[in-house]
Every structure is written in C-alpha cells, then in structure tokens.
Amino acid sequence: MPTTAAPRRLLALLSRHATRVLFAGVFIGLAVPPLAAAARPYLLIGVIALLTAMLLRVDWTAMGAYLRRPVLATALLVWLLGGAPVVVWLVLLPADLPDSLNVSLVLMAAAPPILSAAAIAVLLGLDGALAIVVGLIATLLTPLTVPPMALVLLGLDLNISVGMFMGRLAGIVGPAFVLSLLLRKLAGPDRLERARPEIEGVTVLVMLYFGIAIMDGVTARLLSEPGIVAGWTLAAFIANPALQLIGGLAFAWLGRRGALTVGLMSGNCNMGLLLAALPSGTDFNVLLYFAVAQLPIFMLPALMLPLYRRLLCAPTIGES
Q1: Where in the chain are the domains?
Q2: In terms of pLDDT, which residue wins out, 113 or 29?
Q3: If you classify domain 27-301 with CATH, what class do you get?
C-alpha cells in the first residue's frame, strides 16, 4: 500500500493545481528544447491516453442526454465548423495582415475543438459532457468540412484524402473508447468515482506533455525571428478569447454554464489535427502559428479561473 500512496498523492496534487501546471507546461517546452523534441514523436499515444482519461471522467448519462437533443447538437456543430471560420474570414477582410496569418486564423477557426476541451471544461467547472459529445462529432466531421471551407474562403486546396483522414481519426477515437469501456467494466462506477482525483491527475500529466511537445522548434524560431513569433503569438491571444466571447454570446440561451462551455470550445481549436493533414509544402509561418496558438490554450484557463468561478457562482438576472 505505501508503494502506491505516493503516486496517488502526486496525481491528486496535480489535479488540485491543474491550471497552474498547464500554465507552466508550455514554458518548460520553450526553455528545454531537447525535451520538447524528445516528446514530439509520441503525441499520438498521448492523444489516445488523454481521450481515454477524459471518457472515464465524463458522465456518460449526461452525454446520452445531449445526443437526444439533435437540434442543439446540430446548431453547435454548424457554429463550430461553419459559422466561426466565416466570422473570422469576414473580420479579416478589411484587415491588412500577412496572407499566412490570415490562412492560419481561418484554419484555426475551422478546426474542431481540442480533444482536451472536455478535460479543461471539467477543471473549470463547466459542462464536460457537452464538450465531449460535440467535440467528438465535430472531430469526425472535420475531414468533410475543413477542405471545402479552406477552398471557398481562402482558395486553398489542402489535398486531404477524406478516407485517410477518417482512418487516422478512427485510430485515435476507437482505441480510446474501447479502453475506457474496458476500464469502466473492470473498475465499476464506485471505484471510478473514488479514483476521480487520480484520473484528473493523469489527464493533467498528459496535457502537460502536450504543452511541452508542441513547442518543438518554436524556441529556435523565437531566437532567429522574434518579431514574427511575437506577432503571431499576439494574434493567437486575441483570436482565442475573441472566439470564446462570440461563441458564448451566440449561445447565451443555454444558460451561463452552457454558454461558457460553448465559448471554451469555440476558442480552443484542434490545430494539431490539421497539422497531420496539411501538405508537406505548407507555409512554415502557418505551422508556426499552430504551435504558438497553443500558448493561450494552456495559459488562459489558469488566468481566467477566478473569472469562471465568479461567473458560475454569481446569480443570474431575476434570481434573488
């Protein structure tokens, strides 16, 4: 028993300080480039582990309730995969930005929510079930929506094979679902509930790994062209909360918790998914943006946690 107590305490500690740990992750990747380079090749395993932990953590009954509300799910998917990139494209039309930054911002908005959006939602006290249901469906639809969006809005042919892209997604989502079902069956609901802090701790560890790995190559570019990196980073810190605000306001009718969850999904987009599908000749500045855009994804939850707590605890208009 003593041999397992220390790891469990460490995982529980990570769970309690999740937002601070994630905040530190990207800086570790920037400060220790060899560590980021060593972590990068194993991102696929990390994605599967993260999704498995997330599926263990989320209430599947609540997930089923959202699946029985097709109008809501459809509205969210239309916004996330169609409305958001069109809004960004319209906002950028009068702006005099470099072409590579325009492409990056529109592609970011067209991407589905990050797979860890449900985990971040849980950490912030938001609706993890809503995030995972819509996030998974949006991820599966991405091969059908991103290429035409890129072609219509940007005139960019991504040369994505739908069959191959869907196969890659199935290779991520399928094993995670099987593993989570197996673990649920073996552990049972009571043991899973007791292990909740440890599961959250594992989730934080995997997300920390992402934060480190995604910074591979960014430090070298920062040292050689600091102006470009600074400009792209500033754009990411504007685009992420702006999309969160627009998405939250558009779905304010879901109530405060639901609207904040939609906002979270709207701003935190899975650009890593697009990296695997973009052609080899893609502008490196687009790839650079996809990397630095992880900074607000990992840093903003820690910075905005007090705001989320106030918004979730404050009474709505009309309440006494």
Answers
A1: 27-301
A2: 113
A3: mainly alpha
